[in-house]
Design brief:
The protein has about 250 residues and is an alpha/beta fold. The chain folds into two domains: about 40 residues; about 200 residues, TIM Barrel, CATH 3.20.20. The protein contains nine helices and nine strands. α2 runs parallel beside α8 and α7 packs parallel to α8. The radius of gyration is 19 Å and the shape is globular. Bound molecules: zinc ion. Zinc ion (ZN) binds next to β2.
């Protein structure tokens, strides 16, 4: 979705003029530092700012479908599609959406899907104080536990952006970070392209990311994701894949 590069991008040195070599060296060091920082903040395999996983074990013919930014008014339709194909999934929900639609959050849990924490109001966590980050995670945790009856054990950072303080917030709330192996780009691409991208990205242990909401907007248009899921499920089943929840797919023995 959005980007969070401001402040982690270094200025580039001027390559002409008498001090060009010194500036180039300084510039190179700054760019390298910025590269590390950008990786720490957004890299799917980075655990520099907080521990997280981006794929599961590869010994089983399984993938994990994940849906972010719900629950929304369209989540019940998604639950029907998943049920039709007997597919379990993981929903990373925002606390504010759960308070808007507590009954839908409850339906997700009672249908046997896993619920993860996706912050309370879907902010960028970069450049935020540790207290703000803890509060975002704790409020969502509370709302989900209250409405769905289960306390999440997984956390997906909004926009995939991590920051200082997240490690401690996850530790205090007992949350494991989860990124993704392949993302659907379902907020931008047409559904057939989203589906093709997901099928191409499917492999043993893959964590696939889609959306059943749009940050904390009421009544978001997620038709692309719904159509992509309808298309992808039979294709993955044909290829022999099973659907595991994230806490299962990261577990070597289930
Ligand atoms: Zn999100």
């Amino acid at each position: 979705m959005g980007r969070c590069n401001s402040g982690v991008e270094a200025g580039r040195a001027d390559s002409s003029g008498p001090l060009s070599r010194a500036w180039s060296l300084l510039g190179a060091a700054a760019v390298a530092g910025a590269g590390v920082m950008a990786y720490a903040v957004r890299g799917r395999s980075s655990s520099l700012l907080a521990p997280s996983v981006y794929k599961g074990v590869t010994g089983r013919r399984s993938v994990a479908l994940t849906f972010d930014d719900g629950p929304s008014e369209s989540t019940p339709e998604l639950l029907e599609i998943l049920d039709r194909h007997r597919a379990a999934a993981t929903f990373f929900q925002c606390g504010a959406n759960v308070r808007r639609l507590p009954q839908v959050a409850r339906e997700v849990a009672s249908a046997g899907h896993e619920i993860g924490n996706h912050s309370d109001t879907h902010p960028y966590l970069c450049f935020k104080p540790a207290g703000f980050i803890l509060d975002q995670l704790a409020r969502a945790q509370e709302s989900i536990a209250e409405s769905a009856g289960v306390a999440p054990e997984l956390f997906r950072a909004p926009y995939g952006v991590r920051w200082f303080g997240l490690r401690e917030a996850q530790r205090r709330l007992g949350l494991r970070g989860v990124m993704w192996t392949t993302i659907g780009v379902d907020w931008k691409w047409p559904s057939d392209r989203v589906a093709a991208n997901l099928v191409r990205g499917a492999r043993n242990g893959a964590i696939l990311c889609l959306h059943d909401g749009r940050t904390i907007q009421p009544r978001p248009d997620v038709r692309i994701a719904l159509r992509a899921v309808e298309r992808v499920l039979p294709m993955l089943i044909d290829r022999g894949y099973h659907f595991e929840r994230v806490s299962e797919i990261i577990c070597p023995t289930i």
